[in-house]
Amino acid sequence: MTPTIASSYCSWLAFLVFTTVLLGAQTNVLTSRNDISRDGLNSTETVLNQANVNRASFGKICSAVVDGQLFAQPLVVFTEGRNVVYLVTMNDSVYAMDGSNCNQLNHVSLVPLDEQATPCADLTGRCGVIIPLIGALATPVIDLSTSTIYVTTETESTTGSCQANHANTCFIHRLHALDLSTLQEKFKGPALISGTYLSATFNPKAHIQRPGLLLLPGVMPNGDSGAYLGLSGIDGFGKPGVSTPQGWLFRYDAEDLSKAPTTWSSTPNGEGGGIWQSGSGIAAGIDSPNGQTFLYVNTGDGTFDVNNGGLDYGDSFVKLTTSLTTVPNGYFTPFNQACLNPFDGDFGSGGVLLTPNLSSRYYAVTASKSGTVSVMDRASPGGFTPPTNHTCPATGTNHNQEYFQGATRQYFTTAAYWNLHLYLTPLVSPLTRYQLSPTCNPGPICTTGTDTSSVKLGFSSPSISSSGNTTGTAILWVQSGNGWPPSKNGPAPAVLYAMDAEHVTPPNTVPELWDSTQCPARDTPGNATKFVTTTSANGMVYLGTMDPTDSTNTRGELDVFGLTSAPCH
């Protein structure tokens, strides 16, 4: 960690520790997947455990309808003796809700006059994943030290000329800094998201902002915090004859949004390389003992020519400095990249999880659309080794830490971590639990002796609540459903599962503790959306869904679960 980051981080951490003491050691969830390592772990849960999460004592407490679909993960701030849940919607709204009774505490629309949340059909690309509106899609980030929530929005101008031709300038991406209490703009926001990198120019019509935002204290030259966001094209391939939009990272001064951002494009001289990661936030952490902090992202399909002296990082794991002003500090690209790219193989379909220190090694784990799991040593990710043949399927050897076929189906997920175990959910397949150990060969993921769930999941990333490593407290939470857009049978309710993250039952099965179908009259959530992550904090579990009573499929629903005495009929 650099001296500037370290000093600011200590001040920020001291504030959080002080706040936690005052609030009785309650948990806040301030960023995508709980922390900047993106491990999906809340290790301070003292209310819910394996003994009380069951059909008799756990279920849905309440639900609340909001004005847009909920793709972003709910965030939680414990204050004044209650969970305050922050939601952002695809109608570009921000809500603050009482997390125990679903009462609305505050709401603001971030759509200016003469604008609207963007109809997907107006964008460059396909609407195979997100319809009908694209607004606040990414998980925000909260800075308690300044009482600020950072939110990105996408809008479209509704003036006559824009309605007639849908020009690039008619689409607007913004970064907002909002006061947590009032939801009013601060720090000279909002900022217009725009910029260039080498020969590339950001195209607002062609991009969506999906990965969760990242906030790092002390990284700006003046000591301010930096707010990072990533962007990609809307969906896989571009339309026939239209190039696939490039991937982008932006860094803004979080305490003065009027300053021009620092930018980086994954394919400045090519196409593709989108940073979307099924919504998982940009990861950050050290790469070695006493090392400095780096950013770690995955890119999707696109041009790759770094091995030949180029600057394009399609289908790659990329390590960048926090300044974004130098060339990447390292990367890994699988030998079969040339076979992945034409067939939408998408190395970056999942997010990056940073493991804790394991025998003085710091690893990054990611899973791809081709069903592979990759492990990189963050100090030396592995680069690119050309294949031994020039046809598909390719053959060859990778020089990253570990690379194996984890599933026959696609991964749209980020792994969850607990107590030297990793949990991954392939598409429409059982969850798999792996052990981490420095004694595995090649390791650190042990690919023998794995455990699987009895139910099939997919289109969502697991998260875990526990009271440290205490036996009987580790619960894995994951949502499953047909996703959105719907199948030919239409939208369907999400199913929320709670699984025993610690134990297995013969034959090597991760046991289920509870699910929302066991008591459907009481516990059925709203309709499922893709790439959602549940949030657990202070005895409650929060799930974003779609309002099942809305025939237009534009409204969202927050579903709240916890301990209950309500009977199951």
Q: In total, how many beta strands?
A: 39
The biggest sheet amounts to: 6 strands, antiparallel
Evaluate the radius of gyration.
22 Å
Helix content: under 10%
What would you call the structural class?
Answer: mainly beta
Can you put this structure into words, describing what you see?
- The protein is mostly beta strands.
- It has 4 helices and 39 strands.
- The strands form 9 sheets. Strands 7, 8, 9, 10, 11 and 12 form a 6-stranded antiparallel sheet that branches.
- A hairpin with an 8-residue loop joins strand 30 and strand 31 (445-456).
- The protein is globular.
Record the SSE blueprint.
Layout: H1 3-22, E1 41-42, E2 58-66, E3 75-79, E4 82-88, E5 93-98, E6 104-109, E7 115-119, E8 133-134, E9 141-143, E10 148-157, H2 160-165, E11 171-179, E12 191-192, E13 196-197, E14 200-201, E15 207-208, E16 214-216, E17 226-233, E18 248-253, E19 262-265, E20 283-286, E21 293-298, E22 317-321, E23 330-332, H3 337-340, E24 353-354, E25 363-367, E26 372-377, E27 402-405, E28 416-418, E29 421-424, E30 430-436, E31 445-456, E32 463-465, E33 475-480, E34 495-500, E35 509-510, E36 512-515, H4 520-523, E37 535-537, E38 540-546, E39 556-563
Parallel strand pairs: 1-32, 31-35
Antiparallel strand pairs: 2-39, 3-4, 4-5, 5-6, 7-8, 7-10, 9-10, 10-11, 11-12, 13-14, 15-17, 16-17, 17-18, 18-19, 20-21, 21-22, 22-23, 24-25, 25-26, 26-27, 28-29, 29-30, 30-31, 32-33, 33-34, 34-36, 37-38, 38-39
